[in-house]
Every structure is written in structure tokens, then in C-alpha cells.
Amino acid sequence: MMAAGVVKSLQIGRSGAFGVWTLTALLYAPPLSAAGDRALGEYLSSECVTCHQLSGQSQGIPPIVGRPDSHFVEAMNEYRSKRRDNAIMQTIAGKFSDAEIEALAAYFGSMKPRDTKTDRNQRGRR
Ligand code: HEC
Q1: What are the domain boundaries of the chain?
Q2: 16 alpha carbon to ligand 1 midpoint, in Å?
Q3: Which of 56, 84, 106, 116 could link 38 by a cystine bridge, Cβ 3.0 to 4.6 Å?
């Protein structure tokens, strides 16, 4: 199965960049994330983390770490097709291809949210 996929990607690869990405994903994706290229996702994520905290804290912006890939991809597709209303995220999501969104999903989905503020919050609440 796998070998056939690689051969097919190689053939597509000659005719366009998409095939090259498919091949790259097949070769470098860690075994557990079948869909997205996590390393590519990490590279693309630098723009996102200025707003979305990697710690999973919110501060008004929803955390996007530790989400199932499908939820993440769905949200991005909704922004991209303007079915979900948010000018910032519509612009951002509009720049990415399906493969790039899957890569971002693989990266953010693999991060564990950690609430470093828990102690302070609990003390504040008494
Ligand atoms: C300028 C700030 C900003 C940047 C940069 C940004 N986002 Fe967002 N993002 C937001 C805000 C604000 C929302 C909430 C919008 C809404 O209410 O729908 C959001 C929502 C989301 C959601 C939906 C979350 C949910 O729970 O529904 C996802 C997924 C997401 N962003 C992914 C990304 C990714 C991936 C990137 C980088 C490629 C990125 N964002 C960059 C501000 C930002």
C-alpha cells in the first residue's frame, strides 16, 4: 500500500509541487500523524502563536492546542470559505492550502495545553 502511494506521488511530483509535498509528508510525517506534516506545521505556526498562546491560555483568543485534527481543520475551512465570521482568521486561513492546514492541525494538535496560571487563579478565587 505504502510503496504504491510513493510511486504514485513520484509520478505526480513531476507534474507539480503538490506531488512533492505529498511525497515529503509520506517520508517525514511521524507514524502517529497520518494526515499532516508536523514539521511544516511548526514552521507555519510562528505567525499563529503571536495571538494563540501555546500554553493554551486564552486571554480572549481561543486556545488552539491539543485539539483533535478534525476540529481544527473544520474551523480553518470555515474561515477560509467565509462560513465562519472573523475578518482576521478569514484572511489568515485564506492563505493556506489544504495540506498546510492539515500540517498546522498536526502540529497544534500534538501540543499539550498547560495552564501555568492555575495556581494563581485558584489563590485569587479563594
Ligand atoms: C491577529 C491574531 C491572530 C492570529 C495571528 C491568528 N489567529 Fe486564529 N483566531 C484569532 C481570534 C481572535 C479567533 C477567534 C475568532 C472567532 O471568534 O471566530 C481565532 C480563532 C481561531 C481558530 C478557531 C478556534 C475555535 O475554537 O473555534 C483556529 C483553529 C485558529 N484561530 C487558528 C489559527 C492559526 C492556525 C493561525 C496561524 C496560521 C492563527 N489562528 C493566527 C486570532 C488570531
Answers
A1: 1-30, 36-115
A2: 30
A3: 106
Name all contacts of 58-66 with Cβ < 8 Å and 24+ positions apart: 63/113, 64/108, 65/108, 65/109, 65/111, 65/112, 65/113, 66/108, 66/109, 66/111, 66/112, 66/113
* Ligand 1 first shell, C-beta below 6 A: 47-48, 50-52, 61-62, 64, 72, 75-76, 84, 86, 88-89, 92, 104
Question: What CA–CA distance (Å, rounded) separates 26 from 9?
Answer: 9
Which CATH homologous superfamily contains domain 36-115? Answer: Cytochrome c-like domain (1.10.760.10)
